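Researcher: I'd like a structural prediction for the single chain below. Treat it as a standalone chain; there are no partners to consider.
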Amino acid sequence: MRGEGVGTIEDGSVYIEGQDIVAVGRTHEIARKYKNADKTIDANGKAVLPGFVDGHIHTSLTLLRGEAQDVPEIEWMLKTMAPFSKHIRPDHVEKGAALGVLDAVKSGTTTFGEIGGNMGPVAEKVFIPCGVRANLANTLNEIGPGSRPDAHKPYIFFEEIGDKKLKEAIELIDKYDGKGEGRISCIF
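Model: Treating it as a single chain, here is the predicted structure.
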């Protein structure tokens, strides 16, 4: 990578105030300019990287991880999601999301593109308290339990489901967009 502000900085330092990165540069330059740091972390011999972004994740489905390992993708919704989803309670979704965020943060992911049903409680109970960034969207479609009786035929759509999901998506945006000190954004 080439260009202004891009690339590797050997013997580099990062100066942070609150949750803001104020400066990045050579250690001797940062130490000279910012002498009053409250805390110093010695990362000598380590790599300091920006947080990774997962642009498409379903942390709320983490507890179902591995359920589709042997199922062709075209049958995934019918053979894996449908049988298990009727047993998933809201607390399962929240606990799954918390586990998914924990797994991702431990791997360096700090920003999530999350889509699923009813993202409000997940925003409030997981993403905001965890301190990560998230771009959240409620699933928006006209698909219900009877929408796909055969994986090889088109979906059957239900307008009333679409109306309900649109209303929920608008509520998510109205309530959570900009929350968490601006770390949470909500979209359709």
